[in-house]
Design goal:
Elements (H helix, E strand, L loop, with lengths): L2 E7 L6 E4 L13 E11 L8 E7 L7 E2 L4 E2 L3 E4 L1 E2 L12 E5 L10 E2 L5 E4 L5 E8 L5 E8 L2 E2 L15
Length: 166
Amino acid sequence: GTLTGWRWDFADGAGIISTTSAGPLTRTFATYGTYNVKLNVITSNNCVSADKIIPVVVKPLARPNFSFPAISCLPNANVQFTNLSTVPNAAPNTLSYVWDFGDPASGIVNTSTAVDPAHVYVNMGPYSVKLTATTADGCIQDTTIILNTLHPQPIASFTTDVIDVC
């Protein structure tokens, strides 16, 4: 007979998926882990193959996150970013980082690969700060947080009604 059916079990609790095509099949797994993916095929004579099982390892994504001071003051607000990124089942030091401070006018210092970088802002913003984290396995995830806690420099001033005092 000829092949007429394909039965897939992705071992993720969703049950068996039957198709009538040998074309590519894409699956999105809800969480990381090892899945023993099983396939068997059926012929036009209703003969069923033995199971073909291949373990598919799904690596975890990084969980990028960061914080910054609640208030920073101009001029030249030096904002220190604190990296709070994690990755399940691994140490955070296995991650690599790319920061975009959302300040293209600052030129080449608008980006950093440091773990906990600082950036100097000269205007109030707001700025969209983006952190991209990459795991040792090459899994990439990013997050963007709006920085709108920059405040103008206060201006000291006073007046007097007498200019000369004895």
